[in-house]
Automatic annotation (TrEMBL):
Highest taxon in the source lineage: Bacteria
Protein name in the entry: Gamma carbonic anhydrase family protein
Lineage, top ranks: Bacteria, Pseudomonadati, Pseudomonadota, Gammaproteobacteria, Alteromonadales
């Protein structure tokens, strides 16, 4: 059995220069953009809706990516859309949410259905983002439930892109082995 799995005739689409650790499972309607890295023990299950992950995004160890099915009360369901240059820390849960570009999701964070995270956001480790919340661009969010803590500093905004680039370099090292 492979770690890239079709579901109902739909096979994940994987762009160039993507690293997927052999212990991770990617299944169904999942699209990975260029230079994405999927680290050990990630589960990405696009079985009842779609998962899209943008260029240079990294999904770290033990993270679960899932979606919400379409239904009578929610005709579109909740797909999982992750933008470019996003760093998702270890053991996160992203479920039916939309993340913009240049975001850092701290270790152990949970982001629930219908959440929209705008560009250039830090989400602190262990934070819980409840359903249907919008996190505005340019802020640090922390807590359970998450609250806007403060505006990001210029060097923190610059770090968001750099974090993603650091993982592109690391995944290239893994691909060259």
């Amino acid at each position: 059995m492979t770690n890239i799995r079709s579901f109902k005739g739909i096979t994940p689409k994987i762009a160039n220069n993507v690293y997927i650790d052999q212990s991770s499972v990617i299944g169904g309607d999942v699209v990975l953009g260029p230079d994405v890295s999927i680290w050990p023990l990630v589960a990405a299950r696009g079985d009842v809706n779609i998962i899209r992950i943008g260029a240079r995004t990294n999904i770290q160890d033990g993270t679960v990516l899932h979606v919400t099915r379409k239904g009578e009360h929610n005709p579109d369901g909740f797909p999982l859309i992750i933008g470019e240059d996003v760093t998702v820390g270890h053991k996160c849960m992203l479920h039916g949410c939309t993340l913009g570009n240049r975001i850092l999701v701290g270790m152990g964070a949970i982001i629930m259905d219908g959440v929209v995270v705008q560009d250039d956001v830090f989400i602190g480790a262990g934070s819980l983002v409840p359903p249907n919340k919008t996190l505005e661009s340019g802020y640090l969010y922390v807590g359970n439930p998450v609250k806007q803590a403060r505006p990001l500093k210029e060097n923190e905004i610059a770090f968001l892109k750099q974090s993603a680039l650091n993982y592109v370099t690391l995944k290239n090292d893994y691909l060259e082995q």
